[in-house]
Batch of 2 targets.
Target 1
Amino acid sequence: MKITNSLALGMVLIAGWMVTTAASAHGIWFAQRSTQLALIYGVGADDLDAVKRLPLVKSIAGYDAAGAAIPTRLRIAGPLLLVDADSQPSVVAAVLFNGIWSKTPEGEWVKKGRDEVPKATTSEKNFKYAVHIVGALNGPLPLLPEQTLQIIPVDGKLPLEMGKSLKLRVLHRGKPVAGAKVLADLVNDPDATPVKTAADGMVTINVRNQGLNVVTAIWDGPTDEPTKSDKIEHLATLSFVLPHAPE
Amino acid sequence: MKRLLLIVLLSSLALLAQHARAHGNLQPDHPGGIVHLVGDLSFELVPVAGGVELYVEEDNEDLPSEGMTAKLTIIAGGAKSEAVMTPAGGNKLFAKGVKIPRGAKVAVLLTRKDKVTKIGANFAVK
């Protein structure tokens, strides 16, 4: 009976650890909703309440095919945050500051800094970045303002078919990042073992879907407020669509 | 007889599979047209003498252009130009006096009748 109880306790602890791990991996990305482009907050199939998080969105931007900024806003439409640009963009981008989170010795995440949770096992600031390529990529994707951590397709183009390899570089403030954890698809395979970037920030993935792909990079950077957080977790997505075959 | 039934069954399944795969059609209905699909919406951009036409279909049926507008953005040779497309009967919108150079990157942002819903398409002109 003791063994059974220990096993059950172990399973509960593992389940709790898995939940907290998943909770820290929430990201933002762009996806088509009713033929319009929406900003999504979530992880895996969890498409969470983005409207509630609109006050956390620090920037939203659209860029034309020449890389010039287009006046762009987010518009609340029912439960969705839709991209509302003055003209059709080739790239859209957003930043969300998810606040400071601390993990208590009991393993619970609370939205407070180390100054309020001195016994926290870890305290971190969470920034979420999202870049979406609208349609095909016909040249180098520029470094975008506000995208402190950004994923760049190295060859300036995307494959046409799923399963093909895609060489990426992860940059922090324009400089290559080593050891960033890269997932090929935050939506359909969020628990995959991430691939780490090399010293030059490079990583190669296989494009997973003939549809929406949400490539994700997670990297812990140094804190800018040591009294409140031990580090800054940067989570960046690069989303794009490989079109399906026509009828 | 069994062989015939098998052929009919396999053909039906093939047709069903194709139908389930996608909406729309990339074949233009107008000479020189370029088609871009956005879900079940089809945008056909047609450069003509005197301007640029845009034909819109939804779920393979003409979408009446009355009440809609579109913004046309053309980037070519480092220059950017914009034009407003207005309803021109049927499912057509038209921008007068606009030319699309070869190699241009063209973007269209359609605003539907509700004046709120915007749907866009990007074209690469060869």
Target 2
Amino acid sequence: MIKGIALLLLFQLIGESIVFSSGMPLPGPVVGLVLLFVAMQLCKAMGLGLFSEAETAADGFLANLGLLFVPAGVGIVALWGELQSQAGILLAILVASAILTLAATVWTFIAVQRLVGRE
Amino acid sequence: MKRPAELWVYLSTSPLLWLTLTLFAWLFAVAISTRLKRHPLANPVLISIVLLAGALRLSGEPYEKFFAGAQYIHFLLGPATVAIAVPLFRQWRQVKRALLPMVAALVVGSFTAALSIMLMGAWGGLSRDVLIAFLPKSATAGVAMAISESLGGNPSLTAVLVVLTGIIGALVVTPLMNAMRIRDYAARGFAVGLTSHGIGTARAFDVDQTAGLFAGIAMALNAIATSLVVPLIVRLFL
């Protein structure tokens, strides 16, 4: 468990360090994600099982992902004074954008799947 | 014997109180959600936020006090983003098989998420700062906040918009997909994971295993895509 968490933090640390020193426009954890994925593929190819504890820790995080959004979400209390006057329009835009994104994504997925399937 | 007010003063100087309350609010919200057979309206993230925001209002404590405790949970967004590599690795075979539909849907979806905000936001008269905080809202919180901050937006505002987007997507996805008569759970899951990151993925897992799997993949891919698309859109339009 501790080894798993340590490995996830290590890859985040490497990711953040690369981003900081190279100035690339990606967030550090995303670079860490890609590096961990590559490292896991390499380990698998070499028949090493270095990441089994990292998998356990990752499962734990992802099973409770919703919890991790709660502290940021409660931030609405602090921003409410600023947002109050625009709350209606902000909410309308969020809802419309979510529906458009859901629809565009699902349509594209299905259309391309059919196209590929027919070949 | 000390008076209750003294206990309150003592507790309010330590992160213990709000950290504990946050965890229990979450456990309570999950219990309610399970009781209501995971009805989309009984979203555990939404319930927890309402409970804790209510407690903050009642106690009159500032958000900073709450966050001093809750930051330990918030910090875990970073390693949780790295953790997405694990489902991506496990399901890589399935990812490769549906690679074309996913890449196409990823490009269309990530641009739709940002461009729709750009257009409606400009029409709604939002300021440049608010627009920047708005644009990455479909990426998972840690990533969206980092993008917003790097472009000069307010990461706290982004965080709130990300969570709201997550909840909205989780609420509308099932009725919307049913109305569109889409029965392919891979496609449905991919759409909600792309739109509503972790909160959408949690919802997808409640509905169907395949949907959850593709939602997780979409969340991972869109974390990367949003980091590339949003700076591009800001450069082009703002």
